[in-house]
Amino acid sequence: MLKNIKAVYFIGIGGIGMSALAAYFLKSGIFTAGYDKIPSKITKNLENIGAKIHFSDAVNLIPSEIISVEKEDVLIVYTPAIPETHSELKFFKVNNYKVLKRSDILGILTSLSKVIAVAGTHGKTSVSTIIAHIFKHSGNNANAFLGGISKNYNSNLILSDSPKNAEFAVTEADEYDRSFLKLFPHTAVITVIDEDHLDIYKDINDIRNAFEQFVNQINKNGNLVLKNSLIINQAVLPKHVFTYALNSKSDYYAESIKSNTVRSQFNIVTPNGVIKDIVINIPGNLNIENTIAAVAVADINGISHQQIKDALASWQGVKRRFEYIINSSDMVYIDDYAHHPEELKAFIGSVRKLYPKKSLTGIFQPHLYSRTRDFADAFARSLSLCDKVILTDIYPAREKPIAGVSSKIIFDKIECKEKILTVKEELLNHIKVENNTVYMTMGAGDIDRYANKIKNRLLRNE
Questions:
Q1: Using 50, 70 and 90 to split pLDDT, how confident is the model at 399?
Q2: Domain edges within the chain
Q3: Residue 1's pLDDT band (boundaries 50, 70, 90)?
Q4: The CATH fold of domain 7-101
Q5: What's 288's DSSP letter?
Q6: What is residue 3's predicted lDDT score, i.e. its pLDDT?
Q7: DSSP E strands: which ranges in 121-252?
Q8: Exposure string (b/e) for 187-207, b if CB count within 10 Å is 16 or more?
Q9: Looking at the domain that runs over 323-460, which CATH code has it been given?
Q10: What is the average per-residue pLDDT within 383-389?
């Protein structure tokens, strides 16, 4: 279907999933352009490798290289975050261009490889990035389309030496908009199934049904790596099912765990023996658990224990996943993508365990009006694990405001020593240097754009 494509246009090119696909086409020598709402590091990086990008929804800004090509030779890709009223999207649809969703293209690009797909309402990015690094470091022929920026490669796209002939394709299997149903894995991982995306799903049972549909699409002789607490209908399971857990008996689990604020050391028990003295240069039990899932995938697919151990020793992590912005003896500031109550609970809990004698200041930007409405009570409970909370206004992303929904419905229910409600434009006014404190920014919106400003404010003690 993509064989004769001469140009690709992305509507929402700066999205983390879209940008990996755009980079793939650019590196394949195909003219690539697109629209996004605002400039970012991601759009700048794409422009640096040849993409033409503009930031206003205007048909007249679509490059001539797109318009002048025969329609059958042009591919238009959009994300579900783009509304149907978007003028460029309407233009391409009305004029009968080939218009496909991001998930369709990901499914097509990975279909000729053995797909390794990581699903779950949390943890997908970390697990898939670790898998991609192990495969790359071990010299396996794999492409990876990631939902975060791997710090080892400073990219969300990792290509094999022969991308069009890659044996494996590693990717996230995103449940939003049921996108993961466009994938047909050889090996799949499911990390957790929690209630989320209630703008798409009716309830938790609807979500579970979608995950079981995903499992049913795994090759019947393939592999499923499953968190040991999850229960999946046996009728849809593939031939090979493996369980994993942090430190409870499973097919894959850790023992002899030793952690400090910068690294963890542990053994992983596998069906094929024990991998001893693994070291990862990222702290926290959650990162250990994600590593175990990735190790299971590598082990199942024939990567040696020594290769796995060597790869993990050089793994640097993912940007915005437990990322230290400041890590000194007298000041700590960590940035994380956590945007669901369970993710906040896990992240804050990990920080508390690492720094039991320090005060925790959490700076949180809620993501989506619908998620704020649906989980306000749970957000408040998770944020109450902090000693101090600074809560900003909601990042709307694809959504329009919902009457009666604002950050205040979370704020009013937070129970901690101190709490502040603000808008992000005034956020820096509330950043104060306090003794013996760990600072944390959390959220999936644009809170990370303030990370350097917060860092400078803390270091200068302004």
A1: confident
A2: 7-101, 111-313, 323-460
A3: low
A4: Rossmann fold (3.40.50)
A5: H
A6: 80
A7: 142-150, 155-158, 168-173, 187-190, 223-227, 240-244
A8: bbbbbbbbbbbbebbeeeeeb
A9: 3.90.190.20
A10: 98
